[in-house]
Amino acid sequence: MSMRKMINKVTIVLSIVMGVFCMISCRSNMVAGIEDAKGLPNTKKIRRMVNQNINGMYITMTDEKNPVLLFISGGPGVPEVWLNEAYSEEYPNNIADYFTVCYWDYLGEGISYDSKISPEEITVERLAQDAHAVAQYLKETYNKEKVYLMAHSSGTNLGLYLAQTNSEDFYCYFGMGQDHPDQTRRYEEGYYFMKKVFEESGNKKAISKMEKLATVSEDGTFVIKNPSSIGRDWEEILLLAGCATTREMTSDFKDIFLKQMSCKCYTFSERINYWKGKKLLGKSKYRQYRVDPDIPCVIPVYFISGYYDYTTPITLAKELCEALEAPEKSFYTFNNSAHSPLWEENKLVIEAMLEHVR
């Protein structure tokens, strides 16, 4: 989702909060167990040993006969289960009526955060091994031959890697806001789309802000003025254009940080560790991994994109889908969504997914 770089205000507030509570033990909850998740109906909060590290999961189930879906969040290091609590009225997510959903906090993120984990440990290969172990647990627990796989935003790098390497555990792969290996092009695609949005709305101030970050030279070449810092500043432009996490969100600080920090599904120390995990994943080897479109997929793949998604531009997701070799593939566009169609157009996304359920 569009949370890769939090705006400066988030960084300042988080630094203050983490400084005040620096004595909180980040390992206080690193014990295997199962409990009811507060704030999330029909959901179990699970900690389970996976390859010598505790992995956290939130599993939401309404009918044990439903197919099982393993959900990998974006960021990297930004679990998304809390959206179901914080935005239960604005964006009700009813996917658990059709799937038993495992929102997996992989190594180092969310309730799987551990200060002893080093960034070098977190590789796509290690996460793929953990995903296999989690899938095995889900298959055994719910008596399923295989499970379905869904990933969002930067989590789609791992999701597509699994689609290219693991047919043992998964029926198919749903990639929402599929990331593209060429990160520079996301700014160029976004520039042209958002400039049109701003021109149509007469938002000259937004155009001016965007032009300070990137522009088109006289010979038609797209130019990023400061590549080292554009990721942080680009988020503000996405928010102004309605092209960020959702079309309605206008502030990562207000709509993401403060919302997450007030959720009941996390204890206070887990809320702090959530952002520590994001920082850890930002330094990880996995953060640098990019999918290889030349590797054939071993399971069917279905891409889900919002028309207004320029966090992971829909144009690049389509291009990647076209380039991939897979047993079956389809691309779904949701015209009233930005980066999070599962929440923005929940009913339509579920309908699209159910077309491919056995």
Number of strands: 11
The percentage helix is 25-40%
What's the mean pLDDT score? 92
Order of helices and strands: HEEEEHEHEHEHHEEHHHEHEHH
User: How far apart are the first and last residues' alpha carbons, in Å?
Assistant: 28 Å
- Quickly count the helices: 12
Question: What are its keywords?
Answer:
single chain, 358 residues, alpha/beta, 9-stranded mixed β-sheet, two-stranded antiparallel ribbon, 12 helices, globular
What features would you describe in this structure?
- By secondary structure, the chain is α/β, with parallel strands linked by helices.
- The chain contains 12 helices and 11 strands.
- The protein has helices at residues 8-20, 83-86, 124-142, 155-165, 184-201, 204-213, 230-241, 252-261, 268-282, 314-323, 341-344, 346-354; strands at 33-36, 43-50, 53-60, 68-72, 100-105, 147-152, 170-176, 214-216, 222-224, 301-306, 329-334.
- The strands form 2 sheets. Strands 1-2-3-5-4-6-7-10-11 form a 9-stranded mixed β-sheet, sandwiched between helices. A two-stranded antiparallel sheet has the order 8-9.
- α10 (314-323) links the parallel β10 (301-306) and β11 (329-334).
- The chain is globular, with a radius of gyration of 20 Å.
Fold topology:
Elements: H1 8-20, E1 33-36, E2 43-50, E3 53-60, E4 68-72, H2 83-86, E5 100-105, H3 124-142, E6 147-152, H4 155-165, E7 170-176, H5 184-201, H6 204-213, E8 214-216, E9 222-224, H7 230-241, H8 252-261, H9 268-282, E10 301-306, H10 314-323, E11 329-334, H11 341-344, H12 346-354
Parallel strand pairs: 4-5, 4-6, 6-7, 7-10, 10-11
Antiparallel strand pairs: 1-2, 2-3, 3-5, 8-9
